[in-house]
Amino acid sequence: MAASTPVTVAPDAPRTTDVPLLSWCDEATGERVDLTATQLGDWAARSAGLLRDGCGLRPGDRVAVLLPPHWRTAAVLLGAWAAGLAVSFRPRATAGLPVLEPGGDRPYDAVFVTPERLDDWLEDVPDGTHRYLVGTGPGRLADVPVGWLDWSAEVLRHTDTPPDHAAIRATDPASPDGTSYDEWGRLALTLADQLDLRAGDRLLVDAAEHEQPVTWLLAPLSVGASVVVCANLDPARRDARIAAEQVTRVL
Questions:
Q1: DSSP labels for 79-114?
Q2: 33, part of any domain
Q3: Total number of domains in the chain
Q4: pTM, 2 dp
Q5: Please, which pLDDT band fits residue 166 given cuts at 50, 70 and 90?
Q6: How many angstroms separate the Cα of 249 from the Cα of each of 61, 88, 219, 220?
Q7: CB–CB of 249/196 below 8 Å?
């Protein structure tokens, strides 16, 4: 990941077919997904295609990604940034959206949320022109409300051809508050330095404790470290997880 953009994986990141760049596991269900840099890039490219070609979005358009740490979240975020979009990670209550008229917030161009958060957050989920539910379990969603689409089904309609980055400038907004791609990239590198992350490190992330994607995703990728995101991490099995995953740093 270059300092000028938060979407490019660092050249030192693991890229062989047998070394995962991002691993996600759920200790409650036993589910596990391992993605190499190539595989994660393919999913990000499909997500970018969904937003760019499927939704017709263009650089500078606004996307809300209200998802927990997960491999699908990484694909959505990296895809949105690869398409040059401005991404918010927060619900309406703290998003600081511009008000077009008294009592009305400007809708996002696309919104991504889990079914559980849609139910729990209700009116705090912002309006969006294109609305996607992203499941955290295996397979497609069994029940999708009217007005929403299943990301897992829709993203597969698009190819894994990488998007053209030529239209994206380092000074373009990477989030609706105006923070640029360059600023997010430099913040990721600063956080990586604070965490003492280096190329080749393997970072264990407790998904319940660290939701900010700049911390659990961009910081490690910016320096060529790999990530293990663990949902429902059992404190009693933490040391065993560290040993099994060959973890060198813990967030």
A1: HHHHTT-EEE-S-HHHH-PPEEETTEEPPEEEEEE-
A2: yes
A3: 1
A4: 0.89
A5: low
A6: 36, 27, 13, 10
A7: yes
